[in-house]
Amino acid sequence: MKSKFSRKSFLKTGLFSGATALLGSLITGTPFSRSQQHSNDKKTADPPNEKKPHGGMSTVGLVDHKRNGFNPHEMLTDWDTGEVSQLPNGQTLREYEFVAIDKEIEIAPGVFFPAWTYNGRVPGPTIRCMEGDRIRIHFINAGSHPHTIHFHGIHSAEMDGVPGTGPGMIEPAESFTYEFDAKPFGCHLYHCHSSPLKRHIHKGLYGAFIVDPDPARHAEHSDIARSRLLGSEENESWQEFLIVMNGFDTNFDNDNEIYAANTVAFAYQNEPIRIDRERPVRIYLINTTEFDPINSFHLHANFFDFYDHGTTLTPTREMIDTVMMCQAQRGILEFTFEDFEPGKFMFHAHQSEFAELGWMSFFDLVNNREVSV
Amino acid sequence: MSKWSMQKLPKWIWIVIPVALLLGSIALFLATNPLKPLGVVAPPIEEVTVERTILDEEGIHLTVRVNGSEPVRIAQVLVDDAYWQFTQKPEGPLTRLSSAKIDIPYPWVQHELHEITIITSTGMTFSHTIEVAEPTPEWSIQRIAAYILLGIYIGVIPVALGLLFYPYLRTLGSTGINFLLTLTIGLLFYLLIDTLQEGFEMSQQVAGVFNGNLLVWVTAGVAFLIIFALGRRGGKAPEGLSLSTYLALGIGFHNLGEGLAVGAAMASGEAALGSFLVVGFTLHNLTEGIGIAAPLLNRKTKFRTFVFLTLLAGLPAAFGTLIGAFAYSPHWTAVLLAIGAGAILQVIVEVGTYLYKNTETKSWFTVSNLTGFVLGIAIMYGTALLVAI
Lengths: 373, 389
What we know:
Helices cover about 15% and strands about 35% of the residues of chain A. Chain A has ten helices and 21 strands. In chain A, a hairpin with an 8-residue loop joins strand 16 and strand 17 (about 315-320). The relative contact order of chain A is 0.12. Residues about 1-55 of chain A have low confidence and may be disordered. Chain B has about 400 residues and is an alpha+beta fold. Chain B has eleven helices and eight strands. Chain B has a four-stranded antiparallel beta sheet, with no helix packed on it. In chain B, a hairpin with a 2-residue loop joins strand 3 and strand 4 (about 80-85). Chain B starts with a helix and ends with a helix. The model of chain B has no long low-confidence stretch (mean pLDDT about 85). At the A-B interface, helix 1, helix 2, helix 3 and strand 4 of A face strand 1, strand 3, strand 4, strand 8 and helix 3 of B.
């Protein structure tokens, strides 16, 4: 809304402070020259701000995860390994069914977003497999618009899930089966590549595609590879979490009103992620934020090693506490809180704006090996 | 039905029957939804307007009014692009036209700008800007006195000073008087446009459902007609003292609007250092006094009368500053400004009529008159520059 008094252009009257003295002397001590009084006693008093709480930065109320059908706390660890079987050549086959569904989701308490989803959730299912596995995804479009699944990874043109090649966009009520070998190992993502692209992605059609390294193929770092391999003994000791950094433009002005880790604003601030201080932490971090070129992750009171795209077994950056990622960039973070006092440790986007618009979280460090998320 | 039975029916039945049929057809329309084949599924249109802002030690307090085809739910509130805790009274969804208080415990910063965004359950956003944060004044005798004094400075004093030209103006001949009257029309013309424009600006902030612009036009038109009819209730156009009185009334309404703007600006800190403006207004409004004096030049006038005219034209500014500072609401302000515009139009018509009747040759469209008219506008425009920074 514009200034109420544009005609008289009251703004910027500060230019005329000299004239204030003129009239101030005419009407001495009366409150209508009170602006002077206020600026004078600002140093000593400034009472309005002293008492005011600075800790009210949060949404009001709670999101109904049941109604949403997904819970950001469960999303942290619900790896989807698919229907597993063996192909005749001995290769592991993992089969998934993805259904595109229009669904209204609650992204902050009381704020509903008309999302497009894979399997009714944002982000979609977290595909977790091993390098070299055969991946087969039966995609059914039950939504109201043409959609695709475009996987980041190595595959044929036919399987790229973009308009203009292979099956192109899959029309509503149609289906297609994407199939390829999982490679390279790393922390990847998939998303809809229909046009208009921005809208199809930001509406919620994206998810994590995590390819664990095959220890047999990485003899020089086989211990590290095993620690990443879901189900291995070495992997058991790690606390692994998926965090998809995303945002929502609720009023369609190409600017996000809500930023989040795993969709729900302030989900891990309102209910911190419990971690066992004895065990190392590994975070699969993916940036799917639309409209802003970058997002970031900052860990408080600690530092982490970073594996850009997760495609290496040795860190690409060591001892950092902030990482910046462009759209679709992702990586693996490894750190430990061993020997730390129990307590709450923040992590958030280090764009303050994003943090205050929902991408603000806590780890709750506890002394318990049996901690469950 | 035979002619006989028609005549037997009481007359009032011809009110009852159409009304009953009307209600019946509305009920039928709502029950059968005949628009369904059109395939129109209109999403609920939401509007949230902030009508009043109070800043105090507890934080920011807003009065909002909502409009929507379905109840509007305020889901979250952002201040300066950060989600912030708030409470809403009354709670729950807000039905069409209802209003609610939103209390936000936000540590606002004095003299700085704050942007508040309200997000509804559908994700629609409505923003409201606090241009310069200042604590909202609380009632106190001293403060009320100060606002009245402020109103007297911008309203009463300049009109009184303008009327002081009266003895000199009386020495002018009829050409001089005519010139002065056209000058008055010129300055009134400026005030008319200016008042309307302010009314429209104000109507931007009025909740959409009140239809701000239309409200200003219609109110101005009706106000004009009522005051015009009042002025001519004796069967002829007002002249002399009664014309001056209407002039003072019209200018009084304008000054009320001016006072509202200044008071609200002072209270919200937008004119925190605006003493210069007071000086500007005083000069600007001086011409109003000269205008009021013009119809009185060829008759004797008592001192009391001048006092009365001064107060009628100037004192509303004092009410304006008070209302503006303590009880600000955009739709009432728009209505008051529109009444002012109507009143000023009436005076323009009546001064024009007076001028026409008193010109013997009936050729009142002269160079001298036109010069007066243009000069009147120029003076107002020129002095307005003093308050436009």
